[in-house]
Design goal:
The chain has 143 residues and is α/β, with parallel strands linked by helices. It contains 7 helices and 5 strands, in the order βααβααβααβαβ. It has a single domain, classed as 5'-nuclease (Rossmann fold), CATH 3.40.50.
Length: 143
């Protein structure tokens, strides 16, 4: 199973995103390989926040469109929603202290801890630096 970062979902959905086409191709490739994709509720919340923000895109989605996509990802056969359990919560706190991470790293660290706790060791992201610090994931990017 592979963790899918928020920025991948955004690029997949927003045609004006510079990586739109390449992300779509890679997701199709993962589907053809039979890979399961893992997201969290936090990722979907962040996705809705970003795609509806006119500061990010000239043509942002409206809330109904964003929630339709969030529902699509939630119900897709190849997607698994991973919940933050107590082990993930504890790992989140450990990593925040261990790596001296601040307030701007809270959500990424929680997402990483949730994936780690669920046994996920591969992540597809456009921002590998967000997860490299943990030195425990195989990071997939477009390069």
């Amino acid at each position: 199973m592979m963790g899918i970062d928020t920025n991948i979902l955004v690029a997949f959905v927003i045609p004006e995103h510079p990586d739109h086409g390449r992300v779509r191709q890679r997701i199709v490739q993962f589907q053809q390989e039979g890979r399961r994709l893992a997201v969290t509720s936090g990722i979907l919340a962040e996705f809705v926040h970003v795609v509806t923000d006119p500061r990010h895109f000239e043509n942002p989605l409206n809330m109904f469109e964003a929630l339709t996509w969030a529902t699509f990802w939630s119900e897709a056969e190849e997607v698994v929603i991973i919940s933050t359990d107590i082990a993930a919560h504890q790992q989140w706190l450990v990593w925040l202290e261990q790596y001296h991470l601040g307030r701007k790293r809270l959500l990424d660290t929680q997402i990483a801890a949730t994936w780690w706790s669920a046994g996920i060791r591969e992540i597809f992201t456009l921002n590998p630096a967000d997860f490299r610090v943990f030195d425990t994931f195989q990071l997939h990017t477009l390069s």
